[in-house]
Amino acid sequence: MVIAIGLLLLLIPGLYLAVAYIFALPLVLERKMNFWAGMEFSRKLISKNWFSFLNFAFVLVLLNLAGILLLGVGLLVTIPISACAIAAAYADIVGLPLRYHVKISCTKFIWNSLLNLAFAQKLFRLFLHKSLAVLIFRSGVST
Directed axis angle between helix 101-115 and helix 117-139, to 10°? Predict the structure, then answer.
């Protein structure tokens, strides 16, 4: 019981900080901020709409889990898509200098698609369908 309470007390702040620090790396790289200044700016920026970013992170996790279900080879596609989605979100929210707009314009499609609820629902259904198919295949149950 004590271990469960301790685990819960670590998971909640860890989840909050993991979502709040999504933009820390782009801020440090693009704006050449100090590490702690980038972390703090990211936290302040994301805390305004934290639940929206939690949903965004959840969709990215589901996307990468779908890549794992494809024997890990799918991660070669889903990880770059996740990085592009974070970059497009960063570009939309923080803004980028004009020289970056050509490079980011292709990722805006990914960002808009990930935020589209219908796309998220399709992705979740696909994830459930594939995971059930893998479980049925591994258990040897014939349909």
Answer: 70
